[in-house]
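User: Let's play a game. I give you a shape written as tokens, and you guess the letters that built it. Ready? Here's round one.
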């Protein structure tokens, strides 16, 4: 399968308007436009019943002790793991494109509702739910798309893996709220085709 975007070019840097965070001009970062990107796909198997999409950053530090701390930096050798920015399931088989801005236009402080989303699709909870936990101003359940906001003191440019999955079921057997890893475990039992590309982002490089 082929996955493309008119918003973000494969192997290139995210335009800031599709990110949740951007440089503030003073060495730190601030909120950005957080617009969900256009995505389109082709060459799906003829027996596809639905599609699912994930966007995952695999470069996120697994400890947050020095994240966004003045006088500290996050070196490349830190243990790193996945951060799900978007999980979208139950995309109808006759849909082959998502319009720019369809699923997010701006940062919603405190999170967005879900899992129900546009056109009968369902959103997963993204990892900002965990990242903002304990922050009285920001904590909440963040469903749907929220773009990159890597630490402003990270020495690593983060890479974001966009993947489209063609599935053999119209509706994934998941009930209630779900997160990316939960959805991906179920998706793997129903995949009949996939395609992906990688883009990068940083707020300090």
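Assistant: Ready! My guess for every position:
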């Amino acid at each position: 399968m082929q996955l493309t975007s008119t918003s973000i070019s494969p192997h290139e840097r995210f335009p800031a308007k599709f990110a949740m965070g951007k440089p503030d001009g003073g060495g730190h970062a601030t909120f950005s436009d957080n617009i969900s990107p256009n995505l389109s796909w082709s060459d799906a198997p003829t027996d596809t019943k639905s599609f699912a999409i994930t966007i995952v950053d695999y470069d996120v530090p697994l400890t947050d002790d020095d994240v966004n701390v003045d006088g500290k930096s996050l070196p490349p050798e830190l243990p790193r793991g996945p951060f799900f920015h978007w999980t979208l399931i139950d995309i109808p088989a006759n849909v082959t494109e998502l319009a720019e801005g369809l699923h997010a236009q701006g940062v919603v402080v405190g999170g967005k509702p879900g899992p129900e989303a546009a056109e009968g699709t369902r959103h997963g909870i993204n990892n900002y739910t965990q990242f903002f936990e304990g922050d009285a101003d920001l904590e909440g359940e963040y469903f749907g798309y929220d773009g990159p906001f890597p630490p402003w003191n990270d020495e690593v440019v983060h890479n974001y893996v966009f993947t489209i999955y063609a599935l053999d079921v119209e509706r994934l057997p998941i009930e209630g709220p779900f997160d990316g890893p939960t959805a991906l475990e179920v998706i793997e039992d129903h995949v009949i085709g996939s395609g992906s590309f990688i883009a990068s982002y940083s707020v300090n490089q």
